[in-house]
Amino acid sequence: MKPLILVLNGPNLNMLGTREPTQYGRETLADLAQGCADSAHNLGLDIEFRQTNHEGELIDWIHAARGRCAGILINPGAWTHTSVAIRDALVASELPVIEVHLSNVHKREPFRHLSFVSSIAVGVICGLGSHGYRLALSHFADMLREQAA
Ligand code: DQA
Questions:
Q1: Element (H or E) spanning 120, and its range?
Q2: What is the pTM of this model?
Q3: What reactions does this protein catalyze (predicted)?
């Protein structure tokens, strides 16, 4: 059985493609999901790719990942900068977490420089667009291979 990685996307990421294209590019969420699925296939991983605009739903998905998934790739969107609850849920999952942002949050408004997730993540990737998701999946594949060896 292939390891399962949960790929989570927070609020407003369903608007990709039309939302602030100078920040987030022209790729849609469906394009992003397809790119992740292709990478996962090549890396020998299974993924579940999800997006929600409801914080409680995201937290329920994180809880349900515990013991079922091998890792969580998360772009928490604006909740990155506001949500202790998402950070706590990620810690409770006891899973390795990689935080990904399409844009370089450090080049943007100061309120985007704080992340409640970064300090509990294995790593953080930002500013590389959808390539960041593929890099994160590749890291999970390497990490899980090393653990299994
Ligand atoms: C984002 C950056 C966040 O600051 C913003 O609120 C988003 C998207 C990114 O992917 O660059 O919604 O997480």
A1: none
A2: 0.97
A3: 3-dehydroquinate = 3-dehydroshikimate + H2O
